[in-house]
Amino acid sequence: MNISEISSDEFQTNWKGKFFTIFAGQAFSLFGSALVQFALVWYLTQQTGSATILATATLVAMLPQIILGPFVGALVDRWDRRLVMMVADGAIALVTLALAALFLFGLVQVWHIYLILLLRSAGGAFHWPAMQASTSLMVPKEQLSRIAGMQQTLHGLVSIIAPPTGAVLISLLPTQGVLMIDVVTALLAILPLVFISIPQPARQQTESGEHATSYWQDVREGFAYVARWPGLLAILLMATLGNFLLTPTGALMPLLVTKHFGLGALEFGLTDSLWGIGMIAGGLLLSVWGGFKRRVLTSMLGIIGLGLGVVTVGFTPANMFWLALAGMAFMGFMNPMTNGPLHAIIQTAVKPEMQGRVMSLISSAATAMTPLSLAVAGPVSDLVGIRAWYIFGGVVCLLMGAGALFIPAIMNVETNHTEKTVQPPAGAAAVIQ
To answer: Angle at the Cα of 23 (from 335 to 202), degrees rounded to 5?
Structure first.
């Protein structure tokens, strides 16, 4: 039997050992990627001191996620997802190794870093939907919310641990040494996938073994699948609006700390730390509790909580910085409550063979809001004040989450999808690759 030929039921008979081995490898890779991000941002800061260069680097790292997202998902659904993850991690390791060599020989230039960030992001655009879509086949449906909570906890831990670890490593190692750590962690992510089978979704194929539909038919079907599902489409629009409103709150935080509260770098660092601690706490609670049986209720309450936290920060008087820290911790706590159950809903309710496309579309739409929201928030905040963006964004999120509780299409999203699939050509059959 080929190592990729295993059914979801076979995997789930003893899923914990196999899944968490893969999960551990992915955790190492995530940590290594965070170290690379820190090292490259620090290098650009030290060598150029240019805000434009740093902003450009951030934009370059987002572009593949935004542009490729709608088209990558169809490929993830057509290809062996295990191989997609292995190739993506391997490609990211190779380009990082090339950048390490440029640092070693003193040949690195800013455009090299831009190119590597672009290529690493392109690899991530394939890897993330492949991993998320595979999780629904590896993990029993009733455990998906808990797994999502663990993933959120992991991201919170990395956000706290990676920056100080990166700072220590930069003082002990040259930049290429830090980059090599990421190469090693990428290999640790690939290794379990070499030996552990991952279930693949059923796909429509002709008798000759060809795909029953063309690539572009699959792309169009991905858009149509989301569009004809009112609840899912509404949640996608909510996620897009939420990212537009809340992303700038992180970018504006240094100005809020210095201009409104009259404080410095230490206090700014505390805002990040409290957010990360809150995220870890929320993720741990979700991983143990699993959320309400009706997952969407947990998410909508999470959105309300996010809005309340942002509003609290916006309304905090200049002499009550501790209240802003409490608001940041509450925002971090509510982040897993919002995102974890939504991921579980998609993994549970969306057909396995469509999940790559749906995941990619949601990620692409949400990521696309980042540059747009930053471009709008800067001038608006200069005009009406930084706190106004926090108050407005928080109130809108609060009302959006509360309003969704009264919209049946959203609250019944897990059960209200009417299947209207594209009929395959004659002679096609559903097979597991």
So the answer is: 95
